[in-house]
Amino acid sequence: MFRPKLSLRRPLAVLAAAVIGSTGAAVVAATPASAHHTTITGTVDCDRLTGERVITWTVVNSERGKTATITGVTADPATPVLLVAEGTDATAELKGTPIPKAGQVQGVQRVPGDTQRATLTVEAAWFQKGDSQRKKPPTSKDHKTIELGADGTCAPAPKCVDASDAKYSHTFDGPKGTATVKLAGDLPLCGEEKQYFTLVSYFAPRPQFATPQYVYGTPDSDFLGGTQTEIELKVDVPDCHTQVDLIWGGVDEVIDPLVENGPRYGSKKLGDRGAPGNRSTGPQGWYNGGKKNCTTPAATFASACDGTVTVSLSNDGSISKYPVEFEVRGENGFSEKVTVEPGKANNETVVPAEHAGAIEVLVDGEVIDNGSYEWERPEDCPLPTITADATCETFALTASNPEGAQPVKVDFTYGDKTESRTVKPGSSESVTFPAGDDEAALVALPELDLELEVVYAPEGCGGGGGGEEPPGLPVTGVAAGGIAAGAIVLLAVGAVLFVMARRRRIHFTA
């Protein structure tokens, strides 16, 4: 039986040829993929209107002699990638877009604002004219991953500002009592939110901070909100020591009064270093000053006939908010301190006559307006009276001082003799001169700037007037009674004449 010989040479040769052919096909097929490719880059921006991240993808054709066509687009996140064409809106899909020879195309993708990473995969093919359907064109599949930002967020730009986050700016003029407050930036407060600010002025006991303080007038308060983004505030400022504050909040935040160990505005004052006052930029929103006390100290004086002076003290003016300690000083070391509460008047201090020559009323060591005075004799005070009793041998003069008057000095002068007496209230002093040739005596009251001339004219002396009576004898009987009656008349007439004798000399006959 014939058995053909089997040889492995031919099958191995066929197998080798097949392997080589297969490998060659693979190389041919892979070569275009490695030679033809796209390059992908991406840039990121944030759309503040929508709060989205905007990625601009750029796809570059590596081939200088062939046009590529994008045949597939895969994005992660899976949102559309739209073609960017000059002069048109990005509405067309990037898929299907041809890429010029050695050129590029761009696509825009929008992703949520909190996206941290994005990847674009692009498939492309390089078709040639005349290619049959059986011949596959060169293709590539490339991808690019980009990081969108360390914080991973993109928030939309706000259309308003929340009152709790808003910033402000302000101006302030404490002495004039004016201020303005303005919302910072271009955005209004959100919704119906309002932020109030208030300007308030106080009476103060000192030009530096001190208590107690009392609100003066009406605080001015207004708000920022809605279309109102700036306000002006103005208050009256007292014409005395004051404090003016620009505070955060409405009138319900006003403290009245400010007292020792009581609540304070603290960082509510605009311009303060702490919150909320530091949310407004500008000068410090508080002022202390004023040049005079917030009191109305006043004094009136009333002289009495006995030389005393009654000093009436009051503290009841329109700005009297604090007690006033008065000091009443007089001559010869007199001093008396009196405290008068606000709104009180007619607190009386009597300065004795011996101290009433020069009186001063002081507050805080300074004499107040119209606070100096000297005792003045009231016009309705009864005047001293002068009477005379003249005989042939003597000329007697008597000065009488009424009750309730001051002691008065009287100078009696007759001839070349002068006698002085001080007459106490309610008493009399007399001086008797020997009868002489002078026709009148002079009675002077120097403290009252008064003089009175009394004529010496006794009756029945010298033998000519008495007829049968011996000259030089005392007048008795009816004549003596007539003289006594004349003295009484003279007392009355003297009083009347004396009243009329101020600053001039009056003559009358004794």
UniProtKB/TrEMBL annotation:
Residues 129-149, 265-289 are annotated as: Disordered. The chain crosses the membrane at residues 478-501. Residues 131-146 have a biased composition (Basic and acidic residues). Residues 1-25 form the signal peptide. Keywords: Membrane, Signal, Transmembrane, Transmembrane helix. This is Cell wall anchor protein.
